UniProtKB/TrEMBL annotation:
This is NF-X1-type domain-containing protein. The keyword Repeat applies. The keyword Transferase does not apply. It comes from Culex pipiens pipiens (Northern house mosquito). GO terms for molecular function: zinc ion binding. Belongs to the NFX1 family.
Amino acid sequence: MFFWKLLRNADEEPRQKAKRQTPKKKPAEMSTRNRHHHKGNAQPANPWNRGNNAGSSDGQQQQQPKVKNVKTPASSGGPSSSLKKSEEKFAQAHQKNLEAAKKYAAQQSYESSEDEDERGGSDGAAQDILGSVLKNYGGGGGDIGKTQEYLQNLLESRSAVCLICIGTVKRADSIWSCKSCYTFFHLLCIQRWANDSISQKRISHEQQEGYYNSRGEYIPKPALSVHWDCPKCRKEYEPVDIPRHYECFCAKELNPANHLWLIPHSCGETCRKRLVPDCGHNCVLLCHPGPCPPCPQTVVVSCKCGQSNAKTIRCSQRSWTCLKTCKLKRNCGIHECGGVCHAASECPPCTSRSKQKCACGSRTKEVNCSESRWSCGKVCGKKYACGLHSCEKVCHEGDCGECPLGLPRTCPCGKTSSVASCSEDIGTCGDTCQKYLECEQHRCSERCHVGKCGQCLELVRKACRCGSLSKEVACHKVLNCDLKCKNVRSCGKHPCNRKCCDGQCPPCDKVCGKTLPCGKHKCNSLCHHGPCYPCNQKATVKCRCTGTTQEVPCGREKKIGAPKCRLPCRIHSKCHHTNPHHCHQGDCPPCQKVCDLPNDTTNCSHPCAAKCHDAVRVVTKDKNFKPVGPWDVPMEIVEIKQLPHPQCQVPVPVTCIGGHETAQWPCYNSKPASCGRECGRALKCGVHTCPLQCHAFKKRDSTEEDPRCQSCTAGCLIPRPAGCSHPCKRPCHPPPCNPCQAPTKVACHCGLTQIFYKCHEFYSSDKTEQELVAFREGILSCGQKCIKNFPCGHRCNSTCHSGDCPNPEACTKKVKITCECRHRRLEVACSTARTNPRSLECDESCKTVKAAKEQVLTERERAQKEQEEAENQRELEEYERKVGGRKKHRERKRVQVEETKESNWMVMVAVPVGVLVLAVIVYFTLLR
């Protein structure tokens, strides 16, 4: 809001300035301009643009009068020079004020963001810092409470305020902390405060002067006491104590750096200050503000009286008391103390009372045992041994002693002495007395005399107490003038008005008379500085029913509140129940009983089981509220209303419409409904059940198909015999299905011939597994010669069969065998060649051929080696070129062929024919 006001002022100031500088117009021109102004500017002002006066209605309303006052003739073609100058000045001033307002707004936003940064992130980080500072302390939570409070206040934003400049003490500021109240101040502020305090005291001391007292003595001005005080606790510090450097709390480090994970203005090291009271231990916390907590160390000490055994206790609580009675003698030396455990020097005086005689024994009275030696104040009056004179001492013990008149005596002035009996009187010596008079300055001028000397009659010049009058008077007289003192008394309000005041004005003797904070009584104390003492009168506070009263200090009635009254409340209950409770202030507590009225919401027979709702406090907001700005909030409307009964929640057994289950449902929703399960009734097909969700039906006891059930539309789902892939074409029916008559063909064992059969013959569920195997073996054999080959590679001699060919070891085909060097060859049976493949041995011709081959091979290797050595470099380069330029072998893509079922007769015929042709080609290839 301040920013918008600043912008508005930025607009108004240059306009006002331009208005003062603009010349006045003629009356006729002003009336013409006013008519145009009222025509063209009839638009209402926008409340949301109240602050942006540059383009708002406020700006229009302020600009128009200035335009009216400009002298602009209608006949002339160009504007006047004065109007141009005023507009230019207005634009310059407006731009200048806008820049100032934006700069102020940016500064405010920066300071607010800086404060948010100082508030420090998360509460979790502050708790971590607090925990690290207190981690070494082993005392209880109550012992460290004051120190922990200082730490928490320091970690919270805006909690530390410098009392001198009333500014926030930030984390990065240089501070000084008082050693008595531990309050933070800016270092520069406390230095300025201390220097100013010392300077003012020195100036005040220089203005003071000495004065004469009532005796005419000159009293010099008091010595200068130079010190400065803490602004909060007023602890006195010497000039040498003025802080010169920024130190951490434990004074170990100068200018401590600002660390986010340490206490602000702390060095992070252990405090190590001596604890108070000095027990010999040091503080174990990290460098911290505020007082050090009590000592957490444990010591073994006995109680104060020393009667109990020593026990382990915290050092801060080492002075402990037991519950035993002190048995020491009191100061009377007769009675025991009898008090609870305390130190021997702390025994109170004996309070036992007894009748004791005074010191002279003439009177007796009851006194405390500790005051057994008392004096009655009576003059002794006993005769001395001379029998002529009496003792003039006040009540005393023992003998009165010798007569003082029998001792060596002097004349009254003390100049002559003689020894005579006590019955003889010593007269005066006749010389001048010369004793000092009461003024202690002049001597007595009379002859030696008995008794006191008279008053001093010497004329001396004296000054009055205030020092305004001076004249010669008798020495024993006091000189006072009639001049009244005009100094203000210590109260700072009333003048002294004492005649001839010596400058030491007495305290004000007038009654304060101010109204006390209670607002009812006046202050009866003498006039004083600062706030008055609280009212000492008592006020009576009554409860609501006036049955209980309580006396409280006057003015504290509202804070203390009404007393607790145990009498029953007299306000009639707003609901239909009796709501007994104690007397109270404010509204009665809500009724906690059960409603127990018939539930008219559900219209059932169950009573309402909810909490009483006859008179419920309902808070609503005004729906028709239209805010003027974002700061406006809708007003809350509080009403006491009777709420309707809630829906009945009593569980009632309800069966679903399909009769599947019975469950407990709330009474308000106890209508039968579908349970969501399948109907489950057997359909007419005898195989399936109704798949619909739970639904209503006519005959509740029947388990057969109902007209509302869904009829079976599925085909036959009875599993076919193993191998049969033809579905049953009949609708859903009970088993068994009709035999499968579908024509089927399959290749024989060798794959050259197609065999046709009916499906139920080949895959019959009536035959056993062995019968089916024998039947399939016979029907799938075409009777021709098997086209398979033995492992040796020769064709099988058996007819078409399944599985491996029989007797592969009895192959009789002719094969050629060779010797080891493959020079000799011989034809034998296949079975013989397989049992002894190297039965043919080499002869002499084989050796000759072998030697010739080895010689040729040796010559060839030698020639090749010579060629390789000659052209080694060329061959190597050629080889590298060929190896580097060789293309990578391109792998063929594998095509996955899915096996499909042939449903077309043409496809079933084409596949066996293709297999037969392929087998013939393979056969002739093997023969070659």
